[in-house]
Design goal:
The protein has 200 residues and is mainly alpha-helical. The chain has eleven helices and no strands. The longest helix is centred in the middle third of the chain and has 25 residues, at 118-142.
Length: 200
């Protein structure tokens, strides 16, 4: 089937937009550029995407959404909350590092686009905090975490670990000492959050 006969869908538009960004950079994430790559008129693309800003938001949203399924799955695991919380953040960090290492140009392009996609990024951060809060709430209920407000502490843990997963710090992830720093920060967080074990 020729490309002319393939239905123009939002999914196809977003896939082409990612290819355009990879090849030409974030400045080319426009409706006109994507329409040109698809071989259709920009009016045809506008029937699926109203504005350049919406196109960029959708592309960033799709990129962020791709990392969420394994994180959501961790929250439902049957293991103690402290281990589950660490697994949640370890996995998020691993995903970000893998993306930065495997396709650094695309990673940098998305970082640029995300700076303007404030509502999309805010929703993503809100879900990350919510996932952390669910684990923390479970820890409070099982008695491994102190009686804290889960959302407040989930937010605090996310922001305390920003250096290790926020794309703005990607250049630091190549530092061999970054994992030691992460372990040290995590230990401080858990010292404050975990219920102290009683001495026998």
């Amino acid at each position: 089937m020729s490309s002319e006969n393939i239905p123009l869908t939002r999914e196809r538009i977003l896939a082409t937009a990612e290819d355009v960004i990879r090849r030409f950079g974030p400045a080319k994430a426009t409706v006109v550029d994507v329409a040109r790559a698809l071989g259709v008129s920009h009016a045809a693309v506008y029937r699926h995407v109203a504005t350049k800003a919406e196109l960029r938001d959708l592309v960033v949203g799709q990129w962020l959404a791709a990392m969420m399924p394994p994180l959501r799955a961790i929250v439902t695991l049957a293991e103690p909350a402290p281990q589950r919380l660490r697994r949640l953040f370890d996995t998020m960090i691993a995903i970000k590092r893998r993306r930065a290492a495997d396709d650094p140009e695309l990673f940098a392009a998305y970082r640029t686009l995300a700076a303007d996609a404030e509502s999309v990024v805010a929703a993503h951060v809100e879900e990350l905090i919510s996932l952390a809060a669910r684990v923390i709430r479970a820890g409070v209920e099982e008695g491994t975490f102190r009686a804290v407000d889960p959302m407040t502490v989930g937010c605090a843990v996310l922001y305390a670990t920003f250096r290790f997963h926020h794309p703005a710090h990607a250049a630091e992830w190549l530092n061999p000492a970054i994992d030691v720093a992460y372990d040290n920060v995590w230990q401080v967080l858990m010292d404050g959050l975990c219920v102290a074990k009683r001495q026998e």
